[in-house]
């Protein structure tokens, strides 16, 4: 159906009065009653919006249902809802009700909701005035972000796992809701991974692909905010993996000092012998790729891996990359597809390519090996002691490696010195950028929340990475370990042979 035909169909009177629109109106009424009982939309505050899901209509063209403004959210019914076009034009307004009800008015949040729809292709957005979402922005009046890690409910936030650091931007409140529109849009742009924006002394906006996703994430965010508030009351630091006592600096809690130090570590040749990667991990992935693909071929994870590899190989073929082999379509049969995948993966491993598609598949293969105790991560003996020392001092430690974040977590989680993930605040891989490019380190500094790049120390064994990090303003130390490559003469960087020297 052509775009104009779709637009005409969904804006017709018959469609506006149809079952999909009615069901979405009813859903929002139900959710408002639920959220009222949770304290998220009391006092007529807060709001909800959702797109009218219809498989026959592209998501970008689907109608939008919004709750009205200034009404008792727990008493709303279907007839109280506004219907908007995909571009935000009002197609249906509710009829006025007698005194003491106010004249109907579409949600004051409408322009902010539209930013989430436009910039994130959201399926639903929730604006909550839950007290915990308000209080959590007050614990540090200078903070521009809320950060928390190592909490089970982080897994309920899209794109995050237990060991990840959840970062939620905080914008300043204004007298009128609509005045928040541009600052919310800027936060969405600045934090491409976030699914929420906190408004100081006000509340939170949360979006998801569907109403279920938005609701689930909203519940998880509120839980995490409440946990942080309670940890704060106990004098514990919610932003560190151990959630231990907040270190005191000059008689004040660390949270009152917005400047803090971070250490970012490379893996190969820095925390871990290069030989472990080249002689153990790479061969294991190469030798087990066929078995892994055959046993997991129909799983969502492997199908996602195959999709990434197809895209990479298509680019390789266009660019004349050696050893690239066409991957046939699924119609050719499972074995034909696997054979082509194996040929490409072997060529990528042989060329030691630092590409996301290969690293993601390797991570999944290694996961099986670690979980079956066929693999054990190796770190130098000085690494655990230093990680524990930095952690105890309140210094956050991150990993930045060309290996996938999953592979990084596996190596430190199943190491020869036990589970070291307790001492790590987060993981970065090539999705943040190439390790030899300055902008990657700029992105990391923005992600870890330092006020100036020199607050971050980067340790690596690769000269080109050191140059890129220094260009971004980070402090840099080069790790000199057995088996590492030769450094250029007069390279100008401080070197260490052990973390104990840092």
TrEMBL record:
Pfam families: Aldolase_II, Hydrolase. One of its GO terms (molecular function) is methylthioribulose 1-phosphate dehydratase activity. Residues 263-502 are annotated as: Enolase-phosphatase E1. Keywords: Amino-acid biosynthesis, Hydrolase, Lyase, Magnesium, Metal-binding, Methionine biosynthesis, Multifunctional enzyme, Zinc. Mg(2+) binds at residues 266, 268, 461. The active site is at residue 152. It catalyses: 5-methylsulfanyl-2,3-dioxopentyl phosphate + H2O = 1,2-dihydroxy-5-(methylsulfanyl)pent-1-en-3-one + phosphate; 5-(methylsulfanyl)-D-ribulose 1-phosphate = 5-methylsulfanyl-2,3-dioxopentyl phosphate + H2O. Substrate 2 binds at residues 401-402, 435. Residues 26-229 form the Class II aldolase/adducin N-terminal domain. Residues 1-237 are annotated as: Methylthioribulose-1-phosphate dehydratase. Its cofactor is Zn(2+); Mg(2+). Binds 1 zinc ion per subunit. Binds 1 Mg(2+) ion per subunit. Pathway: Amino-acid biosynthesis; L-methionine biosynthesis via salvage pathway; L-methionine from S-methyl-5-thio-alpha-D-ribose 1-phosphate: step 2/6; Amino-acid biosynthesis; L-methionine biosynthesis via salvage pathway; L-methionine from S-methyl-5-thio-alpha-D-ribose 1-phosphate: step 4/6; Amino-acid biosynthesis; L-methionine biosynthesis via salvage pathway; L-methionine from S-methyl-5-thio-alpha-D-ribose 1-phosphate: step 3/6. Substrate 1 binds at residue 109. InterPro entries: Aldolase_II/adducin_N, Aldolase_II/adducin_N_sf, Enolase-ppase_E1, ENOPH1_eukaryotes, HAD-like_sf, HAD-SF_hydro_IA, HAD_sf, MethylthioRu-1-P_deHdtase_MtnB. PANTHER family: ENOLASE-PHOSPHATASE E1 (PTHR20371). This is Probable bifunctional methylthioribulose-1-phosphate dehydratase/enolase-phosphatase E1. It comes from Lactuca virosa.
């Amino acid at each position: 159906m052509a775009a104009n035909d779709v637009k005409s169909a969904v804006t017709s009177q018959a469609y506006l009065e149809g079952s999909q629109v009615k069901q979405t109106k009813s859903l929002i009424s139900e959710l408002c009653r639920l959220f009222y009982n949770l304290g998220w939309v009391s006092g007529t505050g807060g709001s909800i919006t959702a797109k009218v899901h219809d498989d026959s209509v592209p998501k970008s063209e689907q109608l939008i249902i919004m709750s009205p403004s200034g009404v008792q959210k727990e008493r709303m019914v279907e007839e109280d809802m506004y219907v908007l076009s995909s571009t935000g034009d009002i197609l249906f307004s509710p009829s006025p009700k007698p005194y003491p009800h106010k004249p109907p008015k579409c949600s004051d949040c409408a322009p902010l909701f539209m930013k989430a729809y436009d910039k994130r292709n959201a399926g639903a957005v929730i604006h909550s005035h839950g007290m915990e979402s308000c209080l959590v922005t007050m614990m540090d009046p200078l903070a521009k972000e809320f950060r928390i890690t190592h909490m089970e409910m982080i897994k309920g936030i899209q794109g995050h796992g237990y060991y990840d650091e959840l970062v939620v931007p905080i914008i300043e409140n204004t007298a009128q809701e609509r005045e928040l529109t541009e600052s919310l849009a800027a936060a969405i742009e600045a934090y491409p991974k976030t699914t929420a924006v906190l408004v100081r002394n006000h509340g939170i906006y949360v979006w998801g692909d569907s109403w279920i996703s938005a609701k689930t994430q909203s519940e998880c965010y509120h839980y995490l905010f409440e946990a942080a508030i309670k940890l704060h009351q106990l004098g514990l630091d919610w932003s560190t993996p151990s959630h231990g006592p907040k270190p005191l600096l000059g008689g004040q809690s660390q949270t009152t000092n917005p400047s803090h130090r971070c250490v970012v570590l490379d893996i190969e040749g820095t925390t871990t012998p290069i030989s472990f990667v080249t002689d153990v991990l790479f061969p294991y992935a190469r030798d087990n790729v066929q078995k892994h693909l055959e046993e997991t071929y129909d799983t969502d994870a492997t199908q996602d891996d195959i999709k990434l590899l197809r895209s990479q190989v298509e680019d390789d073929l266009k660019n004349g990359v050696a050893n690239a082999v066409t991957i046939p379509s699924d119609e050719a049969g499972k074995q034909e597809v696997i054979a082509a995948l194996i040929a490409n993966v072997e060529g990528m491993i042989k060329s030691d390519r630092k590409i996301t598609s290969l690293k993601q598949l390797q991570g999944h293969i290694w996961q099986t090996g670690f979980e079956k105790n066929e693999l054990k991560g190796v770190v130098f003996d000085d690494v655990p002691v230093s990680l524990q020392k930095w952690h105890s001092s309140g210094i956050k430690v991150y990993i930045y490696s060309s290996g996938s974040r999953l592979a990084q977590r596996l190596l430190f989680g199943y190491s020869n010195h036990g589970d070291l993930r307790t001492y790590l605040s987060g993981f970065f891989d090539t999705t943040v950028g190439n390790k030899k490019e300055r902008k990657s380190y700029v992105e990391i500094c923005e992600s870890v929340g330092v006020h100036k790049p020199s607050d971050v120390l980067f340790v690596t064994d690769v000269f080109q990475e050191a140059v890129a990090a220094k260009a971004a303003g980070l402090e840099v130390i080069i790790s000199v370990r057995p088996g590492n490559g030769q450094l250029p003469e007069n390279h100008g960087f401080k070197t260490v042979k052990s973390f104990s020297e840092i």
